[in-house]
């Protein structure tokens, strides 16, 4: 579409500073003549840039490049506001629902306004994660032994994943994020693990194992949110609905069937917080046994 090409060219000139804030943008007549298009097409290109907050109409001056205070239609727009708004969206709707356009809409600004502060969604997600991991820290002076400090690290990370379920969905453990605030959690955990007095490779493996445990349980937090939204059924309702299929599944597997029968008789709730605490104790028990601590 020709109007998109024209808009892209003007967008580039603005980004490079060839058309600074306040400068007049070529008129529709000039654009139409330069690009060999109808004036309506040229006007459509300017309308698109106006919608993006890059230009504005000035009485008696025509169309000019918008200053930073005008772009996005909101003087209070900052990177921090964009990041916090994106976190609010992801906390409720999940990371998959996040988009730059959605953030702009939530802020009530032009669709392209956030790009003045953040290059795109990938950078936004990194900023979100760094902000989220920075919401909780550790005492200036550590107390207790390695197990006490590692327990604190696990519970701190779990609380952050609880608050922001999308954190567990970011990247595989094999591709750690270069985030300053995440490094704070890593340093605390590593300092505790270092007391086990093993070499660097073992220390790295133990830290990956520890963080993987937290992430592995936390990954179900957002998945449950999605399942609830998609099905409209609570966990208990879903189990009831699946009862016939579950009975057929365990048929011929006596241990499985006996466990399910007992759980059904005595009652059982799968609570992720309780499961996390139980697994964390088991992990630390294993380390204590292995290292004689």
Characterize the structure shown.
This is GntR family transcriptional regulator. InterPro entries: Bact_HTH_transcr_reg, Homeodomain-like_sf, HTH_TetR, Repressor_TetR_C, Tet_transcr_reg_TetR-rel_C_sf, Tscrpt_reg_HTH_GntR, WH-like_DNA-bd_sf, WH_DNA-bd_sf. Residues 76-136 form the HTH tetR-type domain. It comes from Amycolatopsis heterodermiae. With 293 residues, the chain is an all-alpha fold. Helices cover 63% and strands 3% of the residues. It has twelve helices and two strands, in the order H-H-H-E-E-H-H-H-H-H-H-H-H-H. A two-stranded antiparallel sheet has the order 1-2. Helix 8 (180-193) packs across helix 9. It is elongated, with a radius of gyration of 27 Å. Residues 69-74 have low confidence and may be disordered.
What's the structural blueprint in terms of helices and strands?
Blueprint: H1 2-15, H2 28-35, H3 39-51, E1 55-58, E2 62-65, H4 79-93, H5 100-107, H6 121-133, H7 146-163, H8 180-193, H9 200-231, H10 235-250, H11 254-266, H12 272-291
Antiparallel strand pairs: 1-2
Helix pairs in contact: 1-3, 2-3, 4-5, 4-6, 6-8, 7-8, 7-9, 7-12, 8-9, 9-12
